[in-house]
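Lecture notes, unit on binding sites. The following record was shown on slide 14. It pairs a sequence with 5-O-phosphono-beta-D-ribofuranosylamine.
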Amino acid sequence: MGGRIVVLISGSGSNLQSLIDACAAAQIDGQICAVISNRPGVKGLDRAAAAQIPHQVIDHTTFADRQAFEAALSQTIEQYSPDLIVLAGFMRVLTAQFVGRYLGKLINIHPSLLPKFTGLHTHQRALEENETHQGASVHFVTAELDGGPVIIQDRVEIDANDDASSLAAKVLVKEHQIYPQAVQWFMSGELEFREGTCFLHGKPLDPEGIQVWLHRL
Ligand code: GRF
């Protein structure tokens, strides 16, 4: 049985798929009760349908403003009474008001080693900065864009022949491993968010969270 999860997407939903698969393999003590996309016709919706998960579109372009969109989003989310809301490739900036409603039960995955490269085009920027590594970070969402405390992050080496798409593909592999881990820690009660800090097994985490390459998980 376990916890109730609502997943918000905007596109391909490969992170959604990794969570669907983890739940099906009982690696997550919870169930995805709904998938909501802000864009119609995206592959993530097909993934939800294939997994027989209730799914719908709340198209942000059909609302007068951000507040109206978020009001509709909240109203739909509440219908599922989630324990956790997961942003998985969700590409809308959420207002502080929305975040405040779900603080401590709203997480996101960002394709960089936060706090480096918040915002967009993270892989192109890492290449331009001659970084040796790139990675992905799962974090609690706060009012600061991509600024919340990191739960877990993992990394890959950047090779000389990498471009943004080859790097994205390498990082996605890590994303699909760390997101289910973070969700399971939350579902099992091992992970909490208190006063702006992540606590895992009752101990506060550093701002970069669990850096997988330093641990044997
Ligand atoms: C991923 O790199 C994710 O980190 C970013 O959007 C990309 C696509 O995610 N937020 P998905 O395949 O839609 O889960």
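Take-home: The longest strand covers residues 30-37.
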